[in-house]
Design brief:
Distance between the termini: 38 Å
Helix content: 25-40%
Strand content: 25-35%
Order of helices and strands: EHEHHEEEHEEHEHEEEEEEH
Number of helices: 7
């Protein structure tokens, strides 16, 4: 299979202004498509902003709400899949969610963050209960997590055992935790033999300072593309042939002894 060219949109958009953020997403989709990308990944809560406090209930939408329709039109117009973060309303509950829209504009998968970080998220969001959410994209098995989720080794290992090839991680990684982007994410890719697209916000927002450093980490532990600290669109390739060769050479998943790990749960 040919490589899946993947674009990472490092941006905080304009917090509190969904329409403007959809416009930013649309322009990024155009640029990504012009660069040959088949997939565009946006940061955590990109549609609304992260540090929006009490505006979370006002800006939350159902998974099939008007923003999903708008993103679907963008995806279909430019012929690429889009993953975006948003606050999802489901009845009385609100989830920190990320939705993958296919190149035809139809929803492929919706994921709800399972591990909520800090007082802000725990106040406004309900944690999700499904660890592994996947979809097929150009023959690549794509999985979804959000930010803090990837910092739990068990979470990513569950994806490895479920056959995820490319793990998409929209994030809101803040100072002083930049070591996650620099060190933890490439290690997760290596120890689980998958690609990891880690896509961050950037700059000051409320009480937070987002560090950028979005990256596409490879199963050999290297970083194939890395953004700096500012607004940026970077592109890298997910190569199924390289992934297959790496998995054949790396013994981690083959040498596991699950019978020894029962105490972990």
């Amino acid at each position: 299979m040919p490589p899946l060219r993947t674009a990472l949109l490092q941006s905080s958009g304009r917090p509190g202004h969904v329409d403007e953020n959809i416009e930013t997403l649309g322009e990024a989709a155009r640029r990504a498509a012009d660069a040959g990308a088949r997939l565009l990944v946006c940061p955590e809560l990109f549609l609304t902003g992260y540090a929006i406090g009490a505006d979370v209930p006002r800006l939350a939408e159902p998974a099939d709400g008007p923003s999903a329709l708008a993103v679907g039109e963008i995806a279909a117009r430019h012929g690429l899949a889009v993953l975006y973060g948003y606050p999802e309303r489901a009845g009385e509950r609100i989830f920190n969610a990320a939705q993958l829209i296919g190149e035809d504009g139809a929803a492929l998968a919706n994921y709800r963050k399972t591990h909520l970080f800090g007082g802000f998220e725990q106040e406004w969001f309900t944690p999700g209960e499904q660890t592994v959410v996947q979809a097929e994209l150009d023959g690549v098995r794509v999985g979804i997590m959000i930010c803090y989720d990837v910092e739990f080794p068990e979470n990513v290992r569950a994806h490895a055992l479920a056959g995820t090839d490319l793990l998409l991680v929209p994030t809101a990684q803040m100072h002083p935790f930049q070591f996650v982007a620099e060190s933890v994410v490439p290690v997760r890719a290596f120890e689980n033999q998958m690609y990891v697209a880690y896509v961050n916000r950037t700059g000051p927002e409320g009480e937070f300072e987002f560090v950028g450093l979005s990256c596409l980490a490879s199963p050999d532990g290297t970083v194939r593309t890395r953004a700096g600290r500012g607004e940026e669109l970077v592109v890298g390739e997910v190569d199924p042939d390289f992934l297959s060769a790496s998995r054949a050479a790396n013994p981690y998943l083959h040498d596991r002894r699950p019978g020894l790990y029962g105490s972990l749960v």
